[in-house]
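Because showing beats explaining, we think one record worth quoting, sequence and C-alpha cells together, and here it is:
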Amino acid sequence: MSFWRTVVRSCRLRCPRCGGSSLFRGWFTMWPECKACHLPFHREPGFYLGSIYFNYGLTALIVTVAYFAMYFGTQISQTAALALLMGFCFLFPVWFFRYARSLWLGMDQYIDPAADRREQHSRP
C-alpha cells in the first residue's frame, strides 16, 4: 500500500486499508470496524493517545507561526492577535479531532499492516 494513498484515505476520513467505509458515524463516534474489509477501528485502550499529541502539535505549530507572522507582518495589536489565536486554540482541535484520529489510524496501518490480522487471529 502506498504512503500517499493512505494519507488521502485518511484525509477523506475513510478506512485506511480499503477506502470503502467511513470511519465516523457521528462527529466524535467511530464505527467499531470497516464495513467493507472489517479492519478494526477500536484497538487497545490508549491507542488513539498519539492522535491527541498529533492534534496538539499541529495546533501549537500553527499558532506559533501565525503569532510571529502577525507580530512582524501586520499592524494587529498583541492583544488582538492573542485573542484571535486563543479562539483558534479552542476551535481548531475540536474540528481537527476526526482528522487526527484518521491520520493516526492510517499511519498505524501503513507502518504495520499485519497488526490487524494478528489481532483478528488472536480473538477466540
In short: The radius of gyration is 18 Å.
